[in-house]
């Protein structure tokens, strides 16, 4: 009986920890520091105006960007791993050799985009300081991607405090409310194709999407300060 109670207690604790880790994964924007391929640390290049490498995990999709952007449906399991499907990758590029080379390593060598993903991916979140958390994702080859993030209760220098799309679902137009002035709005299909691009500065703007087919899209919002966030939009 004692053994059974101990096992039950262990399962409850493990379940609680798993849910907490998954919630942490969803509640943060994660900024990539490096990938580790076959034991070699490959850091995000820093050559001055470096593009931001980040990932956002939602309940049903992953968005990650460096030079290009990767979209994929995501399915979480109970043992802190996830699988990806329905992937799409943009091919905009940075047109800087070092950046584009890292971009290829990130998407192909770590995620395995060309191969159909090196999955399932396992993840672990550790508390590095009072406000800073570390996310380590490991693929089936044992390679890793290492990210860092502030918790959402503290304004990170690279993220929005608040962004709202409304109405959502939308028919012909939608608006964005943000605590920051918006510089650019991009709309992507599920396959990662850019189908609309808008430039505006007001904190509240309206965007015409009457020309888009009904379906699910991703809206990437960039502020004048260079901060980015991604939100799903449903077009009726």
Structural notes for this entry:
This protein starts with a helix and ends with a strand. The protein has helices at 2-27, 97-110; strands at 29-37, 40-43, 54-57, 61-65, 69-76, 81-89, 121-127, 132-138, 144-150, 163-166, 173-178, 182-188, 194-199, 204-208, 215-223, 228-235. Mean pLDDT is 80; it is low at 4-17 and 151-158. The chain is globular and about 50 Å long. A hairpin with a 6-residue loop joins strand 10 (163-166) and strand 11 (173-178). The protein contains two helices and 16 strands. The chain has two domains: 2-150, Lipocalin; 163-235, Immunoglobulin-like (Sandwich), CATH 2.60.40.1930. With 236 residues, the protein is α+β, with helices and mostly antiparallel strands. The strands form three sheets. It has an eight-stranded antiparallel barrel. Strands 13-12-15-16 form a four-stranded antiparallel sheet, with no helix packed on it. The relative contact order is 0.14.
Brief sketch in words of this structure:
With 236 residues, the chain is an alpha+beta fold. It is 17% helix and 44% strand.
How are the SSEs placed, and which strands pair?
Layout: H1 2-27, E1 29-37, E2 40-43, E3 54-57, E4 61-65, E5 69-76, E6 81-89, H2 97-110, E7 121-127, E8 132-138, E9 144-150, E10 163-166, E11 173-178, E12 182-188, E13 194-199, E14 204-208, E15 215-223, E16 228-235
Antiparallel strand pairs: 1-2, 1-3, 1-9, 3-4, 4-5, 5-6, 6-7, 7-8, 8-9, 10-11, 11-14, 12-13, 12-15, 15-16
């Amino acid at each position: 009986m004692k053994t059974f109670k101990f096992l039950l207690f262990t399962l409850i604790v493990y379940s609680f920890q798993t849910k907490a880790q998954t919630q942490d994964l969803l509640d943060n924007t994660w900024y990539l520091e490096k990938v580790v391929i076959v034991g070699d640390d490959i850091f995000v290049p820093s050559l001055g105006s470096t593009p931001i490498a980040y990932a956002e995990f939602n309940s049903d999709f992953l968005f990650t960007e460096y030079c290009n952007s990767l979209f994929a449906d995501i399915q979480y399991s109970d043992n802190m791993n996830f699988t990806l499907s329905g992937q799409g990758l943009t091919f905009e590029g940075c047109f800087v050799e070092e950046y584009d080379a890292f971009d290829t390593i990130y998407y192909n060598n770590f995620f395995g985009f060309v191969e159909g993903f090196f999955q399932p991916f396992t993840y672990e979140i550790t508390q590095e300081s009072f406000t800073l958390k570390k996310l380590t994702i490991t693929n089936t080859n044992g390679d890793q991607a290492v990210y860092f993030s502030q918790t959402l209760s503290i304004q990170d220098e690279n993220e929005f405090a608040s962004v709202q799309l409304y109405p959502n679902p939308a028919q012909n137009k939608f608006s964005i409310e943000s605590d920051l002035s918006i510089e650019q709005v991009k709309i992507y299909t599920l396959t990662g194709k850019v189908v609309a691009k808008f430039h505006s500065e007001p904190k509240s703007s309206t965007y015409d999407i009457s020309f888009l087919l009904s379906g699910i899209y991703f809206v990437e919002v960039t502020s004048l300060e260079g901060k980015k966030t991604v939100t799903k939009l449903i077009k009726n």
